[in-house]
Write a structure and sequence with these properties.
The chain has 284 residues and is of the alpha/beta class. Helix content is 43%, strand content 19%. The chain has 11 helices and 10 strands. The strands form 2 sheets. The protein has a 7-stranded mixed beta sheet. Strands 3-5-4 form a 3-stranded antiparallel beta sheet. Helix 1 packs across helix 3 and helix 2 crosses helix 4. The longest helix has 20 residues.
Length: 284
């Protein structure tokens, strides 16, 4: 019996904990990720292996340790302007369309759900800053949420390594929106102030995350079980104005999981919240 099979029961318990708390699923063929992700925590707490870690989690009041374990197992992969075609679509078509609908109020609300360490909402902020002349009299609100408190703390600081800053950013944007601090890069205050970060769990309802014009939830639900996806899509639909838009990752779809959205006939890759009472129509 090899070491991997010995740790399989503990890995299954930890994967179950992650799914119960966050909706994210780790398949059995990826259980190796669990030990890799948790090694720093086990080293910090002098815990020899996964079995001992599970024993500690089950035997004592360990809310802080449990939070650290869950945060470590979450997939927090992100980069600036991830999927440039998507940002181009937003800037040139989707957001101008929404702006026409909101011309009288001049208010625009965007939710970056599953924002990880902040690259996506800061990319949105940079996008608006680059066309500040268009938005001079507008109230632009960007709300960014994640289940991981550690990821949010990182995002709020807005300080990134050289490796992180080079992923998706041109030299021009680096110099315009960041200042170099030693070997790191710190986002400038005028961009940072455009984003409001808060903790949120997509599988739980929230009465104050409502009335958005646009929701970005990219590469999040792809890790969810089918039931969790259904819950998440319902939650996202409830957060949008009727007729508001949602954008998922390229490998994600609502088809087969939700009836509150229709595929947008105007914007490829976007979904539109159907007005209450409108018959379901999956648009090609």
């Amino acid at each position: 019996m090899n070491e991997e099979s010995l740790s399989a029961p503990a890995s299954k318990i930890l994967a179950g904990l992650l799914e119960a708390r966050t909706g994210q699923v780790i398949s059995a063929n990826r259980f190796w990720r669990i030990e890799t992700a948790l090694k720093p925590i086990m080293r910090e707490y002098d815990i020899p292996d996964l079995d001992a870690l599970v024993a500690v989690l089950l035997s004592v009041e360990s809310d802080d340790l449990q939070r650290e374990v869950i945060d470590a197992m979450l997939n927090n992969e992100s980069s600036f302007f991830r999927d440039t075609m998507m940002f181009s679509l937003l800037q040139r078509q989707v957001i101008p369309h929404i702006a026409k609908e909101r011309a009288s109020s001049k208010k625009l609300r965007i939710w970056s759900s599953g924002c990880s360490t902040g690259q996506e909402p800061y990319s949105l902020a940079m996008m608006f800053a680059e066309e500040s002349f268009k938005w001079k009299d507008w109230d632009i609100e960007i709300v960014a949420t994640d289940i991981s408190q550690d990821a949010l703390n990182y995002a709020r600081k807005g300080v990134y390594s050289q490796f992180e800053i080079q992923r998706g950013l041109s030299v021009e944007r680096m110099l315009r929106y960041f200042k170099q601090v030693g070997s790191t890069w710190s986002i400038k205050d005028d961009v940072r102030s455009m984003v409001r970060f808060r903790q949120d769990n997509l599988l739980r309802s929230s009465s104050d995350l409502r009335n958005f014009d646009l929701v970005l939830c990219r590469n999040v639900v792809m890790y969810f079980s089918p039931e969790a996806r259904h819950q998440a899509y319902h939650r996202l639909a409830q957060a949008l104005h009727p007729g508001g838009f949602m954008m998922l990752g390229a490998a994600e779809t609502v088809i087969g999981y939700d009836t509150e959205f229709s595929v947008s006939k105007d914007f490829r890759g976007c979904y539109e919240r159907r007005p209450a009472g409108e018959p379901l129509a999956i648009r090609a």
